[in-house]
UniProtKB/TrEMBL annotation:
GO terms for biological process: proteolysis. This is Peptidase S41. The lineage of its organism: Bacteria, Pseudomonadati, Bacteroidota, Bacteroidia, Bacteroidales. GO terms for molecular function: serine-type peptidase activity. Residues 72-260 form the Tail specific protease domain. Coiled coil: none annotated.
Length: 291
C-alpha cells in the first residue's frame, strides 16, 4: 500500500487512467478511474446480439455488435447483406450499439454497400520502438512488412503506418439501400468508431442515430499487451496514434450522432426489435420532403 492506503494495483490503475485513453490501461484496474461513460445498467437487459430481419415491409435491420471477427464472423456479415438485398426493403438500419471494436476489415462489406461518394479518413503513425517492431514483425502482410523495414531504417520517433489521408473509393455504387441509418451508443468504441467515421465520410445516404456520443477510444490504437512479471497485471499499450491529432481528436468527447433519439432507453436490447429501432425505421420511411 502507498501512503494513502491504496493497494499497488489501484495506484497503477489510477496512473494509467490519468492519460484519459481507454486503449491505454492496466488490465481492468484503470476502469474505475476512467472518464465515466454510459453503461445502461438501468435497462432490464443490455446485451446487443447479432441479428438480421425485417422491421417493416420497407426497412431491414442488421444488428452488428462486434468487430472482433468471431461473433459475428465475416461470413455472417456477407449473409446479412445478402438477406437484406433479397428482402425487398428499400431502407436499411445497421445497429452497432455495444460494438467495442476489433478489426476494421470486418465492417468493410457494409461500407461498400452504403458507399455513394468518395471519402477519406485520417491515417495512423506507429511509435518506432524495438518492442513494437517485434510485435508486428511476424504478421505476414506485405504492406506491414514494408512498415517494419521502414521502422528499422528510421530514427524518427513515429513512422507512417498508412498514408496520412486514407481514401475510401469503390468502383460501383449499390442502388440499395435508398436510405440508411447507423445506430450508435456510448459503448461504441475503437473499430466501431472507425466504422462511424468511414460511413460519415463516404455515405451521404447514411444518417447516424443515437442518444449518447460514442465512447471516445480511437485516437490511440492497435494495442499490445505486456504482462508485469510479478503481479501478472497486463498493461495494454497503444502502438499507433491518429494523424488527426492534435487538432481533431475524438477521445475527449466521442463522436456525436447526427440525430439524437428522443426516447427513454429501451427495456431490453438483445436480438430483439426494440423501441429505438422502430422509431428509426419510422424516420427512414418518412417522405424526404417532410424531413
Amino acid at each position: 500500500m502507498d501512503k494513502q492506503g491504496r493497494k499497488s494495483w489501484e495506484a497503477l490503475g489510477e496512473l494509467y487512467a490519468w492519460f484519459g485513453d481507454f486503449h491505454l490501461r492496466a488490465g481492468g484496474y484503470s476502469q474505475p478511474y476512467m472518464r465515466k461513460i454510459p453503461t445502461y445498467e438501468e435497462m432490464k437487459e443490455y446485451n446487443p446480439t447479432k441479428t438480421f430481419r425485417k422491421v417493416t415491409d420497407h426497412t431491414f435491420l442488421i444488428r452488428f455488435p462486434s468487430c472482433m471477427g468471431d461473433d459475428p464472423t465475416l461470413e455472417w456479415v456477407h449473409q446479412s447483406i445478402d438477406a437484406y438485398l433479397t428482402s425487398g426493403c428499400e431502407n436499411l438500419i445497421i445497429d452497432i450499439r455495444g460494438n467495442g471494436g476489433g478489426t476494421d476489415d470486418i465492417f468493410n462489406p457494409y461500407e461498400k454497400l452504403l458507399y455513394d461518394r468518395k471519402g477519406y479518413v485520417d491515417g495512423v503513425e506507429i511509435r518506432n520502438t524495438l518492442a513494437h517492431i517485434a510485435e508486428i514483425a511476424d504478421i505476414e502482410l506485405d504492406w506491414l512488412q514494408q512498415v517494419v523495414e521502414t521502422m528499422k531504417k528510421s530514427q524518427d520517433a513515429f513512422v507512417a503506418m498508412t498514408p496520412r489521408q486514407v481514401d475510401i473509393a469503390y468502383d460501383t455504387i449499390s442502388p440499395l439501400p435508398r436510405r440508411a441509418a447507423l445506430m450508435i451508443d456510448g459503448q461504441v468504441a475503437s473499430a466501431g468508431e472507425q466504422m462511424v467515421l468511414n460511413l460519415r465520410s463516404c455515405s451521404q445516404r447514411t444518417t447516424i442515430y443515437g442518444q449518447d456520443n460514442t465512447k471516445g477510444c480511437l485516437d490511440y490504437s492497435n494495442c499490445r499487451g505486456v504482462n508485469l512479471p510479478q503481479s501478472g497485471i497486463t498493461l495494454y499499450i497503444p502502438m499507433t496514434r491518429s494523424c488527426r491529432l492534435p487538432d481533431k481528436g475524438i477521445d475527449q468527447t466521442g463522436i456525436a450522432p447526427d440525430v439524437r433519439i428522443p426516447l427513454p432507453l429501451p427495456e431490453t436490447l438483445t436480438d430483439n426489435v426494440d423501441t429505438w429501432t422502430l422509431w428509426v425505421a419510422k424516420e427512414l420511411e418518412k417522405e424526404p420532403d417532410s424531413l
